[in-house]
Structures are given as structure tokens and as C-alpha cells.
Design brief:
266 residues; alpha+beta; rod-shaped; Beta-Lactamase; Globin-like
Length: 266
């Protein structure tokens, strides 16, 4: 429908144009300014009808205020500019021939209702977003926990089922964990092994570089090393091994543990 020049529809659209130009810079919408104006036209029509209605209905003003939130006008500046525009132009463009005093009073009440509707809708949207974020965080925690459990289960299966000896020690050399293959190689018990320090396992036939490589590793200067090394078993016999020791770092890259892999070559 073509609006008659200076007719009610033309004046309504002029009000919507002024409103959109005032508010658009304070919005987060992806619409263009003309597209945003078209979105305001039905809201302007509701305000116009509520302004001239026989009885005042605050729900109309509240609905328009809430609709601003749906249009991504969530900044306080957007509400402030809207109320300024309504105060200055609603009666001028949409009041018709009614009593100016009565129309101004009605416009003021509509502005209060719009502010209330805006505040309520913004609060509801904020709460909904917070709940959505909380749910996403809980789901992420669940995914991480499941992944961590699966990783630990795989590590435990490899650790216990490996045919080669595996030991984990801290950076001071205190043995924290050993697998069954390592216990069989040394012929000892887990309690006996876990109570020892790796520096207790020196052997007269250790190559000169063995402990130098070890010191470089625990300092974080080396990621791993591989040597042939002899150990004394608890019964005094000698165990010869191909020994690979790797440095394990934490999430921030700091040295945390050392991992030893031993293959019996006696």
C-alpha cells in the first residue's frame, strides 16, 4: 500500500525513519539501517495505536520494549535513544487531532511501560544466556572427564600388559610406579621397588655418559636418552638392559616425571 503524502501511514513511516536513525548506531544487529527501519515500522504502529486507544494498555508499551531486545537493541544507550525519540516525535507524527496534553501524558506512560518491558526482557535473556553457558560448561566438563577416564584406562592397559619393563619416577629419582614386567625382570616386589631411588642402581660397568645424560634429562635439557645399562638384582645377579628414559612434562611444559622403558638383554 502506497502511503498518502502527509497521511497517517506516511507520518508513521517518517517516525519509524527518525527512530531507526537515532537507535541504529547503538545496536548490535547484522541488519542494514533500512532493514532495521522496516523492523521498527510494526513497533511504531503499535505505539501509534496505543497512543490513540480509548483506554491505556501498558502491555502494548511493554511489548514494544521487549521487542527491542529481540532486535538486538540490548545496550542501555539504545533504550535511552528510543525513549528520547518517542518523547520528541511520537505525539508529533502519530497523535492526530487529539488533545495534546492528553497525548503527551499517554506518551509518557508508554515510555515508562517500554522501559519496564525492555528491562524485563533483558533480564530474562541474560538469565537464559547464563543458563546456556552453565549447561555448556557442565557438558564440556563431562566430555573432558570421559576423555580423561578413557585415556587413563588405555594407559593402564598398556602399562600392565607391556612385555617390557616400565617404571615412572619423579624428578628426584623416587620410583612411583612399576609394571609387572619390570618386577619379573628384577625378581622383586612392588613395595621393594617403589621404596628405592634410581640413583641406587649404579653399576661398576656403567658407561661414563649414563649419569650425565640422566642429569641433563631431569634438568629439562634433554627429552630422552637411550643406553645399554647393567643393574644388580636383589639376589646379587646382574641384569643387562636396553634402557630408554624419557622426560614427561606437564601442560605448561615444565618437567614433571621421568619414564623408563627396559628391555632385558641378559
Amino acid at each position: 500500500m502506497t502511503a498518502e503524502p502527509d497521511g497517517p501511514e506516511d507520518r508513521l513511516r517518517r517516525f519509524a525513519t527518525i527512530w531507526s536513525r537515532a537507535v541504529f548506531p547503538a545496536t548490535a544487529t547484522s541488519l542494514t539501517r533500512p532493514e532495521f527501519e522496516q523492523r521498527l515500522v510494526p513497533l511504531a504502529r503499535r505505539l501509534s495505536e496505543a497512543l490513540r486507544a480509548r483506554t491505556f494498555d501498558a502491555a502494548e508499551g511493554q511489548a514494544v520494549g521487549a521487542a527491542l531486545i529481540d532486535a538486538h537493541c540490548t545496550e542501555p544507550e539504545a533504550l535511552s535513544r528510543t525513549l528520547d525519540c518517542v518523547d520528541a516525535y511520537l505525539v508529533l507524527y502519530c497523535g492526530g487531532d487529539g488533545s495534546q496534553e492528553a497525548l503527551r501524558a499517554r506518551s509518557s506512560r508508554l515510555q515508562h511501560a517500554m522501559a519496564a518491558g525492555f528491562a524485563h526482557a533483558l533480564r530474562e535473556r541474560t538469565l537464559a544466556e547464563q543458563e546456556s553457558i552453565a549447561r555448556a560448561a557442565l557438558q564440556a566438563q563431562g566430555v573432558v572427564a570421559d576423555a580423561l577416564h578413557a585415556t587413563e584406562a588405555r594407559f593402564r592397559a598398556v602399562f600392565e600388559g607391556a612385555a617390557i619393563g616400565i617404571g615412572v619416577a619423579d624428578l628426584d629419582g623416587n620410583i612411583l610406579q612399576v609394571n609387572n614386567a619390570l618386577l619379573r625382570m628384577f625378581g622383586g616386589t612392588e613395595q621393594l621397588m617403589r621404596g628405592r631411588n634410581v640413583t641406587d642402581w649404579t653399576h661398576p660397568e656403567d658407561a661414563p655418559q649414563v649419569w650425565r645424560l640422566y642429569e641433563e634429562l631431569v634438568r629439562g635439557d634433554r627429552e630422552h636418552y637411550h643406553v645399554e645399562k647393567a643393574f644388580y638384582r636383589p639376589d646379587g645377579t646382574v641384569l643387562w638392559t636396553n634402557l630408554t628414559v624419557s622426560l614427561l612434562r606437564d601442560a605448561d611444559g615444565r618437567p614433571q616425571f621421568q619414564l623408563a622403558l627396559m628391555e632385558d638383554t641378559t
